[in-house]
Amino acid sequence: MGKLRSRIWFGASENGLGTPKLQTKMLERLILILKQPPTIVKQSAKEYIVDPRDNIIIECEAKGNPVPTFSWRRNGKFFNAEKDPRVSMRKRSGTLEISFRSGGKPEDYEGEYQCFAMNDFGIAISNKILLRVSKSPLWPKEVLEPLMVSEGSPLVLVCNPPPGLPPPTTFWMNSAMMPIIQDKRVSMGLNGDLYFSNVLASDANTDYSCNARFLFTHTIQQKNPFTLKVLTIRNIPETTPTFLSPSGTSSSKMALRGEELLLECIAAGVPTPGIKWFKKGGDLPEKKVKFESFNKTLRIVSVSEEDSGEYVCMASNKIGSIRHTVSVQIKAAPYWLQKPTNLVLAPNENGQLVCLASGNPKPSIQWLINGEPIESSLPNLSRKVVDDAIIFNSVQIGSSAVYQCNASNEHGYLLANAFVSVLDMAPRLLGPRNQLIKVIEQSRAMLDCPFFGSPVPEVRWFKNGLGIAPDNVKYRLHNNGTLEIKHARSEDHGTYTFVANNILGQAEEQIRLEVKEPTRIVRAPEHLSVNRGNTAHFDCKIKHDPTLPIIVTWLKNDKPLHFGWMSKFKKDENSLSIPNVNSDDEGTYMCMVKTELDQDFASARLTVLGAHAHTHTRTCLVRPPDRPDPPEDLELSDPAARSVRLTWVPGNDNNSPYEENRWRPGEWQNLSSYTGDQNSVNLLLSPFVNYQFRVIAINSVGPSRPSGPSSRYQTSGAPPDVIPQGLKGWGTKKTNMEITWQPLLDTQRNGPELRYVVSWRRKDSQEEWNNISTTSSKHVVSDTETYVPYEIKIHAVNDFGRGPESSMVIGYSGEDMPGVPKFFRIVQRNTDTIHLEWDKPLEPNGILIGYTLQYRTVNGTEVGSPQVVSFFPNVTEYTIRLPDRFTRYKFYLSARTQVGSGESYTEESPHFANEAYSKDHVDIATQGWFIGLMCAIALLVLILLIVGFIKRSRGGKYPVRDKKDLPMDPVDQKDQDGSFDYHSDEDNKPLQGSQTSLEGNVKESDDSLVDYGEGGNGQFNEDGSFIGQYTVKKDKEETEGNESSEATSPVNAVYSLA
Hints:
Domain Fibronectin type-III: 630-718, 723-816, 820-916
Protein name: Neurofascin homolog (chicken) a
Shape: extended
Subcellular location: Cell membrane
Keywords: Cell adhesion, Cell membrane, Disulfide bond, Glycoprotein, Immunoglobulin domain, Membrane, Repeat, Signal, Transmembrane, Transmembrane helix
Structural class: mainly beta
Region (Disordered): 703-723, 960-1058
């Protein structure tokens, strides 16, 4: 399967080629070069409501080459815009304009519109645009009688606005056009009705009118007013809360993903009930929740699937409480997971279009080609639809088209166009030619060269004619062909050549890189304290690349200084001089040097001493420097929840910043610093802290004595606004996880009864959160599995509410000793080395910190002293050198965690005799001369054995006489019934040493002792000894024996050869 291809590349670098303006020019140039199918670039909204007083404009813009032409369908049928005098289409565009200057009704053009953009290479289509005309109907005429209601009773005034398009917004006013004041007791519901939790006699003092505001017509329609008559009661009875909206104890609500969820609970009762909201099985999503209309409305913005569940509102007063449960279900219109993108292929290349969408319920996917269902198109062997993708194999010129993916469910649809353009083109360069790129030494250099080609060109870079091999250390080649030099140095200066080539051709471009020295301030200005009337002198010595022009700017308090013949400031190449300084010259001076590539700056402060010295004569008498006097008369004003204004009278010398201090029991702490020309500041304070302040003045000599303390100021409390830091979880035992964090400072508590709410659950389990509230800075989770990841979060709570929640962190339960390594084996045994390999345990039970290998020599029952080697956790092999080739070892390998070493894996090295020799060892048994010698000896021994056997079988010193062949009955014969008959007649058995002739008969042995006895039968005693005499057989028997088939015996044949 081929890869998706996009053959135009734009690099983003310091040389400006990555700017959007230049990229747009390149795209325009590319469009002029390439023939491509249409692409929709602008269209009206799916739900399109228009103002009936304006002309109707339905947008449809597309690009392509050739320029696309346009057509429209209305309600699924061709819409001929040319025949309707009110309808016109913009030039080189598909946008429709419907004018009503000459008459006609906008309502006549309501319907569903769809735009088609086409050229020679395909057809792109727009969404289906549902056009509707805005409506703002009047209220129906009705006469409203005065309403009689008892004091303390609930009341609902129904609005029921006319159904407009879009629906109007409602609000309540009286006949005098004054808004109805809403509060905890009286409020408007989501449906526009006005709810009274209980009616008071004062409610009859005005009337109530519902108003509907229509957005498009900018009109307000007013309903006839309601008039109330309230029957007063001396003692209004107190009642338990009851729900006015919604009714009952439970209801359900459905919302779509990404939309707002609005839940409402309005209750009646005396006293007026308060409303609280909860979510069963979890917390309300704080960052997305808003409470409105005096807590009666719960708004959740941009809902998602995790917002599903049961929400409970509780209405309560001192008489009692009631609850209502709303079951919320979140559905989803289709949304993209992977939208199909344009595909450019060369002939015979492969590719695919992928269309992935999700939703609830799961959307169905339909593919179209040029606006028509793909099932009804002509068969194409190079195209196949597989699930949510179209696979292309070996595409050919002429098969370009625009494909549409439609993902839809009951809540909506998505439509995406993606063209497949089949073309072949030699590489073309789209950027400027002969670029010059300048960079500062040690900075990153990006050499960009935008190009296009089909098939995808191969990219190479050369420097001064030598090829560059990207190694991701010094050079990195990006997917778009850009060459990145991560840290440019002076030796990188030179000419670089970019080469792009495919089977159709080649394109080259040269880029010159110049590496410049950085600009630095080598002698920076220093802080000065100068007596009034003297000259202040700031240094600013600069070192820079001589080929880069520099601009030196001096600033005072971040504002540029102006130099001229009337200015008191004087500057030269390396300094700034300020003659005859006075108090106006005090401030911070900055030297800034800038080139076209970089800049540097440094600053220093000037303090003028004796600025308020008394002058008795024309000569300026400067008082010797001294510490300033302490400020006096501290006053607090403008108290607020988290701030107060502090004012004081400065001492005799105010040429310094001062500091205020925060009050703590028995301890003063620095709060902040300000410039010496201020004597009144607004202090930002922490909630729920009892403050007292004092001020210290500072000059170049040192700080003054502290002022007298101010009066005390207690700030009001608030929920915590700081997240506890340092949240982490780790196990102290293999069955627990200890969660710790840094407690909030006293000034961060913001209120009494500070507690920490810690939540945890197993990572990726999606189970409910476990929660614990504690005042300490540690919590131990017990009965955990060994080394399991947990998600942890925390927030602080005090009596004023809860603080922000921390980000989720990952903690782990305790580690244990690891299991045995997965395997441990001796993979090679040579004469001088042993090579070992192993793998990490299947159950590491924690973070492996290494391995321990123990081994000792083994010689029968004797063992040597143990040797121990430790390895890092990423080492899984080790080679041991042997003192001699007969040494054997026993090995014990174990893995280690922080807890300790686990069970050992034991192996013993095999004996050298059982192992193969190494390749460089000379083995005599494998030498050719040795093998030949052994074969010759074996053959000689075999021949001697055969000769000896024949000699023995011929009787040696006795004459051998042949015997007449005797017929031999079969040892076993089958009876007629197929069974075997085993004969035991000794007379029918051949004598020991007899031979079988070629005819299958048995010949008696030539060396039979019977031949030498008297008569035909040998006689034996009871002990088996022979009692006959040796005799010589008759010649006749010899003659008969010679006629036997003895010559064919294998033994005799060998004997004859001998």
